[in-house]
Specification:
The chain is of the alpha/beta class. The protein has helices at about 20-30, 45-50, 80-95, 105-115, 140-165, 180-185, 200-215, 230-245, 265-280, 300-310, 325-350, and strands at about 5-10, 35-40, 50-55, 100-105, 120-125, 165-170, 190-195, 220-225, 245-250, 285-290, 295-300. It folds into two domains: about 5-140 and about 260-315, Rossmann fold (3-Layer(aba) Sandwich); about 145-260 and about 340-350, 3-Layer(aba) Sandwich (Rossmann fold). The protein is built from eleven helices and eleven strands. A seven-stranded mixed beta sheet has the order 3-2-1-4-5-10-11, with helices on both faces. Strands 7-8-6-9 form a four-stranded parallel beta sheet, with helices on both faces. A hairpin with a 2-residue loop joins strand 10 (about 285-290) and strand 11 (about 295-300). The protein starts with 5 loop residues before the first strand and ends with a helix. It binds adenosine-5'-diphosphate and 6-O-phosphono-beta-D-fructofuranose. 6-O-phosphono-beta-D-fructofuranose (F6P) binds near residues 128, 129, 172, 173 and 174.
Length: about 350
Amino acid sequence: MKEFKRIGVLTSGGDAPGMNAAVRAVARVALTRGVEVMAIYRGYSGLIHGDIKPLAIRDVSNIINRGGTVLYSDRCPEFKTKEGMEKALETCRKFGIDGIVSLGGDGTFRGATDLTAHGIPCVGVPCTIDNDITSTDATIGFDTAMNTVVELIDKLRDTCESHARCNVVEVMGRGAGDIALNTAIASGATAVVVPEFPYDDNSICKKIAKAKALGKRNFIVIVSEGVGSEYAPALAKKIQAETGVETKFARLAHIVRGGNPTLRDRVLASKMGTYAAEELLRGNSNVVVCERKGKIITNDINYALILDRMYKKTLKDGDLDAFSAEDIDRMKREIAEKESYLLDLFTVANKINL
Ligand code: ADP
Ligand code: F6P
């Protein structure tokens, strides 16, 4: 079994609340086992440019509660090139880094699998507010983002109620409606629009007009950004024109990506970070740490990436060639479970938010 003397930890892609808690866990686990830990700043950019410093146990104190990432993040297209990879490998040699825990989304995992193939074993930890990594039930940052959305919508509802208004609120999520569907239930939104399910402006207007006639004064409509950036502002205009309810539009955007992580994200990040370091040190690499039905497990990174493509219906020719019939069955089962989880949320939101 490979003896690790020094590992690196990096955060890459879009930041997510809870990344710091995961970095802390990785560092503490490795350091207490006598393995040195190097902080790699700015994701794969830092690996290419040698922006690296050693971490001691107390260097990760007072970060479990902080949003953003103390290691900073970056999108680094150079890392995808042959030259970029060579520079990254040279940095690993220079700093004696013999394994890496990479925190981020699917792009970050692609980088991690490339590095593993070039002799630097990596383990991925899923961090994104979008919850769009199909191999895990929850990603780090998702819970905090949803709680922030709910807190902001509660404030909008106060003023909507005072003035008998509607507010159409666009929330982040990239192509995934997870944030929108959960927050629609939790904030009692009158309607929710996500890319996963059919939507229709006219029925939303009718629903609002009917509720108004029955005495309802405040109306919240949540739209996931995945349906396109022009949809929500246009819907706000249409609601006002069709129902006579004065309607405002709010794009919450990056505000839901910041802030202190919730308890759930701190715990998830601490569990995943611990597991990631332990798996790497016991020789398991090219895997992503996942949570399934409350249990922390690992999945092969390639399995996780192809599962996502299958879920998003973006499979390319040959993508499934390396997988067994059992793997493919498991992918289909996991996709069916994800679809059913979203459908349940959509059904509940529409049944009780009248
Ligand atoms: P996320 O990890 O949140 O999905 P990105 O897609 O921006 O965010 O990916 C983060 C970084 O991972 C990129 O800037 C790049 O350095 C690296 N990366 C992304 N895609 C690949 C790829 N196909 N091969 C190697 N590295 C990649
Ligand atoms: O993946 C996280 C996320 O915040 C998405 O919800 C959003 O679509 C995207 O990143 C925004 O990216 P950027 O920070 O590059 O504007």
